[in-house]
């Protein structure tokens, strides 16, 4: 255990249960400096505010796991893993699926730990010095809580560099399959490449939006921009879309999308375009009745916000120009820096430029297996708007 003393007046964030102690708030450190060790966080006046994991290399020096003066033990982590898994079991907000996020980092009071389940197999991301140092404990707790026969460790290389921890990909236990894993979400079937796919293999965070697309699809001409492996297109096909156009820049992803949609190849006109979605929206007239716009994060840092806002607006403007009367547009931002308010303003700008009034029908976010702690607003990243043009 080491002691991290905060600078005078820098105790506010920890008192408000925010889990991060930033380097600028730290006055001095006493005791060992072992990465990942438990750190007691102390105010300038000498009051113990909480306990967390020490990350000497990161801008986030301590990830707090417990508040108050009582020192926790590593049992806390095992208990929280067990609780996170138990909370998802049979959760009606998650619903019928064998693929879900089991642990969502700060959202489950487990900073640095993300665990996704795909059928029997877990994919685990340990992204802090604290979790990296406790991998045996995490493995034990996950095996006990889930009974999963295999787990793959999938690193976040960028986060690992920031933390100064090794980047490691490989089995954590058992023999995670190299071939894609078949998952089922409601009646929708997908194949997930846990070793090579984006994120941990699939956009689990768009499940609620896929349900919505399926419900809205009947009889509509659907355009799925930034489609990845066709998560939304499969939902549209299940829902009875009149036609579906899939646009995605990655070859591997669009090949998987074709496979996913094979069962409908004879019944629904399908168009697959390995293309730049910005260019596609400009060039291809449509019209479309249901358009999904789900680009990668355009603003990774707060300094990117202006440029990203312009890119989003341009994208939405062209989307609106391609939309049939009364079309629905489901538009997403997965950048924390472009939240609901700014996203509405961007949509408004596009509506003005397109000279088309637009209604907001619904606001969307990540589903219940991706909880956001009120103590940690930075955990919210996904914003969606269902618009009618
Ligand atoms: N809608 C998807 C997730 C999209 S993630 C789903 O629900 O599964 C963003 C996707 O956009 C990624 O698959 C990425 O490969 C793709 N992409 C990034 N830039 C692109 C571009 N300019 N044009 C088309 N696709 C792009």
Task: Break the fold down into its secondary structure elements and pairings.
Blueprint: E1 2-6, H1 12-15, E2 20-22, E3 26-30, E4 38-42, E5 48-54, E6 60-67, H2 75-88, E7 99-104, E8 113-118, E9 121-126, H3 129-132, H4 135-146, E10 150-153, H5 157-163, E11 170-173, E12 181-185, E13 188-192, H6 207-216, E14 221-225, H7 231-239, E15 243-248, H8 251-261, E16 270-274, H9 277-283, E17 288-293, H10 305-321, E18 323-333, H11 340-354, E19 359-364, E20 383-388
Parallel strand pairs: 1-4, 9-10, 14-15, 14-17, 15-16, 17-18
Antiparallel strand pairs: 1-3, 2-6, 4-5, 5-6, 7-8, 8-9, 10-11, 12-13, 18-20, 19-20
Helix pairs in contact: 2-4, 6-7, 10-11
Residues 198, 203, 206, 226-229, 231-232, 247-250, 253, 276-278, 294-296 line the site of S-adenosyl-L-homocysteine.
Strand order of the largest sheet: 16-15-14-17-18-20-19
| Termini Cα gap | 58 Å
Shape type? globular
Largest sheet: 7 strands, mixed
| CATH topology type of the largest domain | Rossmann fold
Average predicted local confidence, pLDDT: 97
CATH superfamily of the largest domain: Vaccinia Virus protein VP39
As a whole number of angstroms, the C-alpha radius of gyration is 22 Å
CATH architecture of the largest domain: 3-Layer(aba) Sandwich
The structural domain count equals 3
Beta-strand share of residues: 25-35%
Level-1 CATH class name of the largest domain: Alpha Beta
Number of helices: 11
Helices and strands: which structural class?
A: alpha/beta
* Bound ligands, each once: S-adenosyl-L-homocysteine
